[in-house]
Amino acid sequence: MAQTSDKKPIARCAFSKVALAKQWLRRNVELSSLLFLAFVVVVIWAFAELADEVIEGATHNLDEDILLLLRTPADTAKPIGPPLLYEMARDATALGGVAVLTLATLATAGFFLLRRQLGLMIYLLSTVASGIMVSSIAKGIFERPRPDLVPHNSLVSTTSFPSGHSMMAAVTYLTLGVLIARVVTDRRLKIYVLTLAMMITILVGVSRVYLGVHWPTDVLAGWLAGSGWAVACLLGARLVLRRYQTDKTGEVPPD
Length: 255
Fold this sequence. Notes:
The protein has one domain (30-249). The protein starts with a helix and ends in a 6-residue tail after the last helix. Strand 1 and strand 2 form a beta hairpin. The chain has 9 helices and 2 strands. The chain has a two-stranded antiparallel ribbon with strand order 1-2. The protein has helices at 2-28, 31-56, 60-69, 83-94, 98-114, 118-142, 164-183, 187-210, 216-249; strands at 71-72, 75-79. Helix 4 (83-94) crosses helix 8 (187-210). The protein is mainly α.
């Protein structure tokens, strides 16, 4: 009996420490922010590993095999499938082009401006603009040539790694998806919006390989960099907003 009574204070002490730890985490760090940070770290690591493999040429055979898989064996100048599929690929790749992304970003920024939600407007514009800068810098660093194995079925003028269309589609559409999901309250609608943003991003990347203007690893790198940058900007915005609300009210805002 004495041993049992001795264990009770120890158990209460341990429980108290756990409660204090949870309280400290609640006041200083959001669980969702930790998850976002973990995602960004994993993406950076994956991108670095992929870039290292590309530089060493370890992915070249795989890139060639996938690129040729999407071409007619008798004539590699022709993508597989009917002409309608080719036109659909050109339409899909335009969703990651400068014109469409600029219009989508400015239209959404104007919407937030009219609603006097200047914070969301600045967040959107800064995320997309900084993403363009990161994409341009990365292309300048790696300077990987475009695929020369098949003819290009879309106009290109920059280097290949990472895919700018894939990266900017991820940055723009995932950011727009998060902003729209923030407005709606139904969980099913949130899932639908975010899923749609990811599907558009995937379609843009696949179309770049199908049209022969990017190696598959270029697109994978673009997806990694774009999603990582979008989440990093979201994490930064959340932390800034949390700090601002805490300083203003003296209380930690709810998750």
